[in-house]
Amino acid sequence: MIKDRVNRVTGARVIRTALPAEAPGIAALHARARATYYPDGVPDDGTDWPAAWRRAVERPGGQVLCAVEQGRITGIASFRTADGAPGDTVYLAQFHVDPERWRQGTGRALHVACVEAWRADGKRTAGLSVHVDNHRARAFYARQGWTPDARNPSAPGDHHLLLTYTVTCTGAGE
Length: 174
Hints:
Elements: E1 7-10, E2 13-17, H1 23-35, H2 49-58, E3 62-69, E4 72-80, E5 89-97, H3 106-120, E6 125-131, H4 135-144, E7 147-148, E8 160-166
Parallel strand pairs: 5-6
Antiparallel strand pairs: 1-2, 2-3, 3-4, 4-5, 6-8, 7-8
Helix pairs in contact: 1-2
């Protein structure tokens, strides 16, 4: 995977590979987005999110893309092939858009950039886990072509739903 190849410009928006120094800002955006679907507040599990995002940006075999508008990061996506997974499979570990930028095309543009990167890397299948109460994200993913993972259905009481996406040669989700 060539981390520096993504630099997609759509109007005033640039989608590019994130930089390690941007980890604190990425972590802040991540926190703002997550706060919207945890009605009692984001659980504190002790994770040092700026450090976790720095590791994600620097991880060999993974990639973090960011949408930048007017010099500000407005969306982030982190993906990689999970250990032990088939080489043509990618896992979308994080995908967040700043709540102030919802419904303005940022998420769609970021998703298109992800699919282009996956296609260029020969990925054929993508997976993700979405919080069951995050109805806005679930609807977004459905509009992009994600479907519930039939091989891993949710059980009663599960907090996350597994989704899958088929990376096609042209046009899917774009």
